[in-house]
Sequence to fold (159 residues):
Amino acid sequence: MLLSEQSYKKIDRELAKFPADQRQSAVMAALAIAQDEKGWLAPETMQELADYIGMPAIAVQEVATFYNMYDVKPVGKFKISVCTNLPCQLSGGEKAAHHLKEKLGIGFRDTTADGQFTLIEGECMGACGDAPVMLVNNKRMCSFMSNDKIDALVEELKK
Ligand code: FES
Fold:
Protein backbone atom coordinates (compact mmCIF):
# COMPACT_ATOMS: atom_id res chain seq x y z
CA MET A 1 0.00 0.00 0.00
CA LEU A 2 1.56 3.25 -1.14
CA LEU A 3 -0.78 5.64 0.59
CA SER A 4 -1.81 6.09 4.19
CA GLU A 5 -4.92 4.49 5.57
CA GLN A 6 -6.42 7.94 5.91
CA SER A 7 -5.96 8.64 2.20
CA TYR A 8 -7.57 5.33 1.24
CA LYS A 9 -10.51 6.21 3.47
CA LYS A 10 -10.89 9.52 1.68
CA ILE A 11 -10.68 7.79 -1.71
CA ASP A 12 -13.29 5.27 -0.56
CA ARG A 13 -15.61 8.14 0.29
CA GLU A 14 -15.16 9.52 -3.24
CA LEU A 15 -15.71 6.10 -4.79
CA ALA A 16 -18.92 5.68 -2.80
CA LYS A 17 -20.40 8.65 -4.65
CA PHE A 18 -20.55 6.68 -7.90
CA PRO A 19 -22.18 3.43 -9.00
CA ALA A 20 -19.88 0.38 -9.12
CA ASP A 21 -19.54 0.57 -12.92
CA GLN A 22 -18.48 4.23 -12.81
CA ARG A 23 -15.67 4.07 -10.29
CA GLN A 24 -13.33 5.90 -12.63
CA SER A 25 -15.39 9.06 -12.10
CA ALA A 26 -13.56 9.36 -8.77
CA VAL A 27 -10.14 9.47 -10.41
CA MET A 28 -9.68 13.24 -10.22
CA ALA A 29 -10.48 13.32 -6.52
CA ALA A 30 -8.26 10.29 -5.92
CA LEU A 31 -5.35 11.96 -7.72
CA ALA A 32 -5.78 15.09 -5.60
CA ILE A 33 -5.84 13.03 -2.39
CA ALA A 34 -2.71 11.11 -3.42
CA GLN A 35 -0.91 14.30 -4.41
CA ASP A 36 -1.79 15.94 -1.09
CA GLU A 37 -0.13 13.06 0.70
CA LYS A 38 2.85 12.44 -1.55
CA GLY A 39 3.56 15.93 -2.84
CA TRP A 40 3.50 14.71 -6.46
CA LEU A 41 2.23 11.84 -8.55
CA ALA A 42 4.95 9.29 -9.24
CA PRO A 43 4.28 6.57 -11.84
CA GLU A 44 3.92 4.00 -9.09
CA THR A 45 1.37 6.18 -7.27
CA MET A 46 -0.71 6.43 -10.43
CA GLN A 47 -0.41 2.68 -10.95
CA GLU A 48 -1.60 2.13 -7.40
CA LEU A 49 -4.62 4.37 -7.97
CA ALA A 50 -5.40 2.61 -11.24
CA ASP A 51 -5.34 -0.77 -9.49
CA TYR A 52 -7.35 0.52 -6.56
CA ILE A 53 -10.03 2.13 -8.71
CA GLY A 54 -9.97 -0.63 -11.30
CA MET A 55 -9.05 1.30 -14.42
CA PRO A 56 -6.10 1.26 -16.85
CA ALA A 57 -2.97 3.03 -15.60
CA ILE A 58 -2.70 4.89 -18.88
CA ALA A 59 -6.13 6.44 -18.31
CA VAL A 60 -5.03 7.67 -14.89
CA GLN A 61 -1.86 9.15 -16.42
CA GLU A 62 -3.88 10.87 -19.12
CA VAL A 63 -5.99 12.66 -16.54
CA ALA A 64 -2.94 13.55 -14.43
CA THR A 65 -1.04 15.03 -17.38
CA PHE A 66 -4.03 16.86 -18.84
CA TYR A 67 -4.84 19.05 -15.83
CA ASN A 68 -2.16 21.37 -14.59
CA MET A 69 -3.09 21.07 -10.91
CA TYR A 70 -1.53 17.62 -10.93
CA ASP A 71 2.23 17.28 -10.68
CA VAL A 72 3.74 14.29 -12.40
CA LYS A 73 7.24 15.45 -11.49
CA PRO A 74 8.55 16.33 -8.03
CA VAL A 75 7.81 19.89 -6.94
CA GLY A 76 8.91 22.05 -4.04
CA LYS A 77 7.07 22.21 -0.76
CA PHE A 78 5.22 25.24 -2.06
CA LYS A 79 4.09 25.32 -5.67
CA ILE A 80 3.21 28.83 -6.71
CA SER A 81 1.19 29.09 -9.91
CA VAL A 82 1.11 32.55 -11.42
CA CYS A 83 -1.71 33.24 -13.83
CA THR A 84 -0.14 34.47 -17.05
CA ASN A 85 -3.19 34.31 -19.27
CA LEU A 86 -3.92 37.44 -21.24
CA PRO A 87 -6.35 39.31 -18.95
CA CYS A 88 -3.94 38.90 -16.03
CA GLN A 89 -0.93 39.65 -18.19
CA LEU A 90 -2.48 42.96 -19.11
CA SER A 91 -3.10 43.77 -15.45
CA GLY A 92 0.33 43.20 -13.97
CA GLY A 93 0.61 39.41 -14.18
CA GLU A 94 3.79 39.58 -16.19
CA LYS A 95 5.39 42.02 -13.76
CA ALA A 96 4.37 39.90 -10.77
CA ALA A 97 5.84 36.79 -12.39
CA HIS A 98 9.05 38.65 -13.09
CA HIS A 99 9.31 39.83 -9.49
CA LEU A 100 8.71 36.36 -8.14
CA LYS A 101 11.30 34.84 -10.46
CA GLU A 102 13.87 37.40 -9.33
CA LYS A 103 13.01 36.92 -5.68
CA LEU A 104 13.26 33.13 -5.81
CA GLY A 105 16.08 33.05 -8.35
CA ILE A 106 14.29 30.53 -10.55
CA GLY A 107 12.24 30.47 -13.73
CA PHE A 108 8.95 28.80 -14.50
CA ARG A 109 9.01 25.01 -14.06
CA ASP A 110 11.99 25.33 -11.74
CA THR A 111 12.40 24.50 -8.07
CA THR A 112 14.65 26.35 -5.66
CA ALA A 113 17.78 24.48 -4.57
CA ASP A 114 16.42 24.10 -1.03
CA GLY A 115 13.32 22.35 -2.37
CA GLN A 116 11.02 24.98 -0.91
CA PHE A 117 9.48 26.65 -3.96
CA THR A 118 8.39 25.65 -7.44
CA LEU A 119 7.15 28.24 -9.86
CA ILE A 120 4.73 27.45 -12.64
CA GLU A 121 2.62 29.30 -15.16
CA GLY A 122 -1.03 28.92 -14.29
CA GLU A 123 -4.10 29.12 -16.47
CA CYS A 124 -7.01 31.48 -15.85
CA MET A 125 -8.23 30.98 -12.30
CA GLY A 126 -11.52 32.74 -12.87
CA ALA A 127 -10.39 35.76 -10.90
CA CYS A 128 -9.17 38.00 -13.72
CA GLY A 129 -10.51 41.11 -11.96
CA ASP A 130 -8.20 40.42 -9.01
CA ALA A 131 -5.00 40.32 -11.07
CA PRO A 132 -2.23 39.59 -10.53
CA VAL A 133 -3.37 36.30 -9.06
CA MET A 134 -1.44 33.31 -7.75
CA LEU A 135 -2.34 29.97 -6.33
CA VAL A 136 -0.30 28.22 -3.65
CA ASN A 137 -0.38 24.41 -3.74
CA ASN A 138 -3.55 24.47 -5.87
CA LYS A 139 -5.58 25.66 -2.92
CA ARG A 140 -4.74 29.06 -1.57
CA MET A 141 -5.70 31.88 -3.89
CA CYS A 142 -3.72 35.12 -3.59
CA SER A 143 -5.16 38.22 -5.26
CA PHE A 144 -3.90 41.67 -6.21
CA MET A 145 -0.29 40.52 -5.81
CA SER A 146 1.83 43.64 -5.72
CA ASN A 147 5.57 43.24 -5.23
CA ASP A 148 5.12 43.96 -1.52
CA LYS A 149 2.45 41.30 -1.18
CA ILE A 150 4.62 38.82 -3.07
CA ASP A 151 7.53 39.53 -0.71
CA ALA A 152 5.25 39.05 2.31
CA LEU A 153 3.85 35.79 0.91
CA VAL A 154 7.31 34.33 0.30
CA GLU A 155 8.49 35.34 3.77
CA GLU A 156 5.39 33.83 5.34
CA LEU A 157 5.82 30.53 3.49
CA LYS A 158 9.50 30.35 4.39
CA LYS A 159 8.67 30.33 8.09
S1 FES B 1 -6.68 35.45 -16.73
FE1 FES B 1 -5.78 35.28 -14.79
S2 FES B 1 -7.42 34.74 -13.50
FE2 FES B 1 -8.30 34.92 -15.45
Notes: The first strand starts at residue 78 and ends at 83.
